[in-house]
Every structure is written in C-alpha cells, then in structure tokens.
Amino acid sequence: MDPPNPNTEAKKMLLSHAKTLRLHTGNLVNRTRLKKKCPCSPSEELQECIQATLSSWVSTIQPPTENLPDTLDCNIPLAADAIAPEEREELKVSAKFFLFESDQSSIRDAVDMACQTLAVSQLDSVIIAPRGLLGADNRTLAPLQPAWEELEALVRSQRIAAIGTADLDKDLLEQLYNWAQVKPSSNQVNLASCCVMPPDLTAFAKEFDIQLLTHNDPTELMPAATFQEAMQEGTQHLSAGDWRLEWVLRYSVIVKSRGIIKAMGYLFSARKADL
Asked: Residue 129: enclosing H or E segment and its boundaries?
C-alpha cells in the first residue's frame, strides 16, 4: 500500500478544522466547461458550480502547516469578476438572495461579499427569495420582516439601490408594501406554477409601480442532501463533517445599452454543523 500523501493529509486537516466555508464560482459566462454541460435547472447549475469550483480550489491550494483558519475562502482567482470603475455606469449589477438559516445578519455579509467580489460600492438591486422564510402556505408577513428590515438598512447605507421580493401573491405583496419603509421595487413570479400573471397582482403592481418579473427557481434551491453530495464530490471526499448552507447569492452584471450578460455567478456561505 502506498504511504499517505502529505499534501492530501494536510488538505484533510484544513477541511476538518474549518468551521465556515465561503465560495465564489467566478464568472460562469467564461467557464466553458460549465457552458457545455447546459444544466437544465438552477439547482443543477448550482450543484455543478459548487463541485467544479471546489475541485479546482482543492487541486491548487497549498495548505498551511500551522495556524489553520476557521474560515476558508474558496475561489478561482483567474475567474474574478472585478468591475473597472470606468465601466460601472454602463452596467447594472443585480442579485438574488436565498437565505437557508434564520440569521438576518448574513444578508449584510452576503452583500458585502458581493460588493467586494465585484469591486463596487453598491448593488443596483437585490431580490430576496422569501419562500424558505414564509413556507408554502404562510399567510402572514412576520417571518419575512426581519430580513426586509436588514435590506432596508442596506438601502439607507447606500449599499443597495433597490430591493424586491419573489413569489408573493397580491395579499402578501400588499401587506409588505403597506408595512415597509423602503417599498419593494419588484416582485418575481414563478411561471412554472402560474402560466399567467394573476390579474389582482398585476393591477396592484401597476397601481404602486412595482415591476413584475418572472423566474424559474425551484421552491428549494439546494436540498441539504444535494449540497452534501456537491461538497463531497468537489472536495474529492476529503471533507469530513456535515456542512450546511447558510445563504446563496446569485449575481448578474448586465450591459445596460445592449442588454447582454457580461458576468454571472454564485457566492455562498456554509457552516459545519455542530457534531
């Protein structure tokens, strides 16, 4: 039997010691390997992105031999998306935020990470996916309100220009509009479950100048078992422990004058569950 590879053992120790992992997929527009795969759903796309990015990162890192970090920043430097200052006015930077844990402070962490990654001081718009907070049959806005207040604070600090939500029917959108200090600028509707925009939602959105958009994200973007599988595959089965997603942020950078996507990618944060 071959003796253990010291570098492999060091990587195992690094992953075993870590409590938090933050990942940036880089610009998927330039990732030809992913483009050839043509994932048929956002969940499959995210799973492939996690596996590919982790695999590249694990293959290239040189783990420290001491002072192992609690937080690992996993990214591919050559795939960075930094926006040049002279280009900023020509681009629209948007994001959609998926919260998997109830810690509202992670919204600020995600926005800060996105701004740092893209080298911008402000995101033009952020949409929060509230399904994980509200549940499928929730008729009250209360579970969403703490997250919305965090988004409002980011608008006041000029970290975000506009905020929106997704999958709210007319009643919940009206509740949000009447309660919120910073009003929603948009509401995404999943056309998989609704082939035509509901007339009452359309009328309310028109009256209060809320843009209705469409999306195809599933109710559960990344099931826990699928995420565990992506982590194991991506780390070449070197990672021990139960990793859980805290949040995912998907961003896009669009050239305003041409309407083309210049960059898109994912950021996420995961923590190791208490053993």
From this structure: strand 123-129
Inter-residue contact 160 to 186 (CB < 8 Å)? no
Give the closest residue to 73 by CA, choosing from 108, 110, 23.
23
Residues 100-153 have pLDDT tens digits of 876 788 999 999 999 999 999 999 999 999 876 676 556 788 889 999 999 999
> Considering the entire predicted model, what is its pTM?
0.90
Across the beta sheet with 123-129, the strand order is: 71-75, 20-24, 260-272, 243-255, 91-99, 123-129, 160-166, 186-190, 211-215
CB–CB of 81/26 below 8 Å? yes
The amino acid present at 254, given as its one-letter code, is I
Cα–Cα dist 86/235, whole Å: 38
Per-residue pLDDT of 155-205, as tens digits, reads 999 999 999 999 999 999 999 999 999 999 999 998 776 667 889 999 999
Q: Say how far apart CA 67 and CA 54 lie, in whole Å.
A: 22
Give me the helices (H) in the chain, please: 6-17, 32-37, 42-60, 105-118, 131-134, 145-156, 170-179, 199-207, 224-234
Cβ neighbours of residue 203 under 8 Å, at least 6 residues apart? Answer: none
